[in-house]
Amino acid sequence: MKIEVLTIFPEFFREVFDFGIIRRARRAEIVGINVYDLRDFATGKHRTTDDRPFGGGDGMVFKPEPIFNAVEKILGTTEREKYPPRTRVVLLTPQGKVLKQALAKELADEVENLVLICGRYEGVDERVNEVLVTDEISIGDYVLSGGEPAAIVLVDALVRLLPNALGSETSAANDSFSNGLLDFPHYTQPRDFRGLTVPEILLSGNHAEIEKWRRQKALEKTQKVRQDLLNKENG
Ligand code: ADE
């Protein structure tokens, strides 16, 4: 998968993609990530990327031109119908569809070229949405000061789902949410830590019983903190 990030704060991404699973996946060429400074695609003496909103109101709005120029450079066109196959252009915005594991999985499975536009200020000129964007995605019902942290969250959630990105193929299948439940509790050495002991069942070697216990714990945890997940409509 190729991921292209458009931002006015490229420095924001300087090191985040250089750790752990993302770093490994980049090195193994499972994913390629490029970060572009939108200012480099702005024209005019001051290379401004934003301006005041028509109709008045607070704040500034991202101008369409730098974003159109960047998408044209990256995808060779600004016509959605002519994008290369398996391309998505995503605007990170609180107005988007909320990111869930199922959406991350869909993108990991279906997308080859992913362009992420990090919004800022009060918003992005709507013509970007009308013409370029295939998906608007929010990472949750709260407002960030920009799409950058959201892009990082999306990239992380996606990359770990790409084939061979994780050491063991089963790790992602066992993640929270992939079976509709939160994860079960984990324990490691020592068996007794300051008088806090590990549940006996985990030391029993009885794998069928351990599976049952884990499923029960996952269910209890989900019931306690995320009742909504047990409601199928929300799955
Ligand atoms: N930009 C600002 N808030 C956001 C959110 N919750 N998700 C994605 N992008 C955002």
What do these coordinates show?
- There is one protein chain.
- The protein has 235 residues and is an alpha/beta fold.
- It folds into two domains: 158 residues, 3-Layer(aba) Sandwich (Alpha/beta knot); 58 residues, Orthogonal Bundle (Trp Operon Repressor, Chain A).
- It is 32% helix and 19% strand.
- It is built from eight helices and ten strands.
- It has a five-stranded parallel beta sheet with strand order 2-1-6-5-8.
- Strand 5, helix 3 and strand 6 form a beta-alpha-beta unit.
- Helix 3 packs across helix 5.
- The chain is elongated and about 70 Å long.
- It starts with a strand and ends in a 5-residue tail after the last helix.
- The mean pLDDT is 95.
- Bound molecules: adenine.
- The site of adenine has 13 residues, from strand 5.
Question: How would you concisely characterize the structure shown here?
Answer:
It contains eight helices and ten strands. With 235 residues, the protein is of the alpha/beta class. The site of adenine has 13 residues, from strand 5.
List the defining traits of the structure above.
235 residues, alpha/beta, Alpha/beta knot, Trp Operon Repressor, Chain A, five-stranded parallel beta sheet, 8 helices, binds adenine
